Write the structure tokens for this entry.
Amino acid sequence: LILIIQSKKINKKVLMLLYFIFDLQMWVFKVLACELVFFAAAVVLTLFLVHGTKTRTLVVGILCVILNICMYGMPLDVMRLVIKTKSIEYLPVMLSITSFCNGLLWLAYALLRFDLFITISNGTGAVLGSIQLVLIALYYKSTPKRGDKKPNEVQLSSADGKISPV
């Protein structure tokens, strides 16, 4: 009896998840599919077109460096917006701290192992993360706090002193 009830619950959850993925968030599925196709193509092309372990290591290492630098470089547009608006409203502080620490720790590991691929990509990540932290330090005070924001609706006061939204 418990097995039947639990299997019905699992089926219900799977159907809800499929509905969510395919109907409401189709773009998430498309991005995931593109990533899987890219990964499969990289594996197949490397295995069949590149011969020798050292050459394969070089090709995969260069590909990983490029993709890792792209990952660390994604907030560049947000950093430009932070400089333009002089507000860190769009720059997630915890993500910036985590990104900096991740790049710094991997850089330290790469320097201990003398691994050029990890050094280049995570050195770039540590530099970009430190730039984000500098921007946070510079513009932290100029960003309005959540309670300081004005309401989105216009309010008018009536003759009896009551305030009503328009």
